[in-house]
Design goal:
The protein has 20 helices and 8 strands. The chain starts with a helix and ends with a helix. By secondary structure, it is mainly alpha-helical. Helix 5 (121-131) crosses helix 14, helix 6 packs across helix 9 (213-231) and helix 9 packs across helix 10 (234-243).
């Protein structure tokens, strides 16, 4: 048999062996992949989304707001929670009672609200989530609300907005002032950088006022007021707060384009602006946003009916602000005035690097009321304490010109130098040629003059 024939037989054998190997190992690989996918899908489905069956029997997946997936341990690790919140012994059983649909409808209807708190299966799913799996988180938020709700209520009252909006930060940040979302929203009210700046919140390398409870609450109240001027419906306002007014307007147009906007006689009908009407055209997370808000209002009102015990709260000492006109590090204040640095950070969460940039413009420093006078008395000592270590930016530097300077010539520098040398040589050559031409012309003129003189003498 020729070499070519042997080679063809060998190639066929190899191909058959590879095919048999694929048949043998493919089921193993596919089953392993299926197991991995099941393991991956089960947990995220339980944590991050719910499934609702509509009237037609179709399943719909709705994402939870990001704050509903936060780890409770991270919330309890915040300074305010560790210092001023305690779990209490509860006489109620840790059991979530079951109630009928009519009872939920009645309770939502009886809540003293301006906003519509309608009931449906999606709202029920979120109530079940809060009263079941997230019941310990609700216990934390009931305790932490004693810190933050007065601030929220004051801001909402300032702009004459419904007070039930104070529960919006529960689904935005789980009452975590340090919360940062996966898309860059920050603070209790989860402002995006552009929206925060639009409503006067400073954002730079040292300051992030989105984290300040008072300033961000006032900005959120103004933003909600402006959204209501656009939509005139509070549920649409809540949805627009989540996904932006542009997406709500798109959903309104799509929802009304699929509905006949003509009356019986062909007259145009008004555009329907209703959250539940545009619901199918909203982003997945926004579809769960208003139901989550309704459920948060429900559970914060009727928590005791679900055997949820709020954490006991010891309110921190009252605080006040002083304006500083020089840069100061929080550690300088803590050491000289005698305060806990973590407590000082919790009072001033807007300072990202622990530096109050008073040199840029007068900046507020929040202190316990009892320590304001002590800070004023020791202000110079505060500014001078370890200033060179903690405030490392130099105001002026000297250039050392008393030592030789060493250059490293890059290719660009060498090329530029070569061009300069060539240019200098060309100029020198040109100059010499010009001088030579001038000298030659002078000689010619002198020679011609001598010849003419000789002719005249003859």
């Amino acid at each position: 048999m020729s070499k070519i024939g042997k080679r063809k037989i060998t190639e066929k054998v190899v191909k058959w062996l590879m095919f048999i190997g694929l048949l043998v190992f493919m089921p193993l690989n596919m089953s392993a992949q299926a197991i991995d996918e099941d393991d991956d899908d089960d947990e995220p489905d339980e944590e991050d989304e719910i499934t609702v069956v509509d009237q037609n029997g179709d399943e719909e997946v709705i994402e939870f707001p990001e704050a509903m997936t936060y780890d409770l341990d991270s919330l309890l690790n915040l300074y305010m929670a560790k210092t001023y919140l305690d779990e209490q012994d509860c006489n109620m059983k840790d059991v979530n009672p079951e109630y009928s649909k009519e009872e939920y409808v009645d309770r939502l209807y009886r809540m003293p609200c301006v906003m519509e708190m309608a009931y449906n299966d999606v709202v029920q799913k979120f109530i079940d989530r809060y009263s079941g799996r997230l019941r310990r988180s609700i216990s934390y938020m009931l305790g932490a609300s004693n810190f933050y709700m007065p601030i929220f209520e004051e801001a909402l009252e300032m702009y004459q907005l419904p007070l039930e909006l104070k529960y919006l930060p529960i689904i935005e940040s789980a009452l975590n002032p340090k919360a940062v979302s996966r898309v860059g929203a920050a603070g209790l009210w989860q402002f995006m950088p552009a929206t925060g700046k639009q409503y006067g919140l400073k954002l730079n390398s040292l300051v992030d006022e989105r984290r300040d409870p008072v300033l961000s609450s006032q900005a959120a109240a103004r933003y909600l007021r402006d959204l209501y001027k656009i939509f005139g419906d509070w549920n649409l306002v809540i949805a627009a707060y989540n996904c932006g007014p542009e997406n709500i307007n798109k959903a309104i147009r799509r929802a009304n384009n699929t509905t006949s906007l003509k009356g019986e006689n062909g007259e145009p009908l008004p555009v329907v602006k209703d959250y539940w009407h545009i619901y199918p055209y909203l982003p997945r997370e926004t579809r769960g946003y208003v139901p989550a808000f309704i459920a948060a209002n429900y559970i914060m009102t009727y928590y005791s009916l679900h055997n949820i015990c709020p954490m006991t709260t010891r309110l921190p000492a009252k605080s006040d602000t002083v304006m500083v006109s020089r840069n100061v590090h929080l550690e300088q204040v803590a050491e000289v005035v005698g305060l806990n640095i973590d407590f000082l950070r919790s009072l001033n969460p807007m300072y990202r690097r622990d530096i109050v940039p008073g040199a840029t413009e007068p900046s507020p420093l929040r202190l316990p009321l009892a320590d304001v006078g002590r800070f004023i008395d020791l202000e110079d000592s505060v500014y001078n304490y370890r200033a060179n270590e903690l405030l490392t930016h130099r105001t002026e530097v000297e250039v050392r010109d008393d030592v030789p300077t060493y250059y490293h010539k890059s290719k660009r520098t060498a090329k530029r130098g070569k061009k300069a040398r060539v240019s200098r040589k060309a100029r020198a050559t040109k100059s010499r040629a010009k001088a030579t031409r001038k000298k030659t012309a002078t000689r010619k003129r002198a020679s011609t003059k001598r010849k003419s003189t000789r002719k005249r003498r003859r």
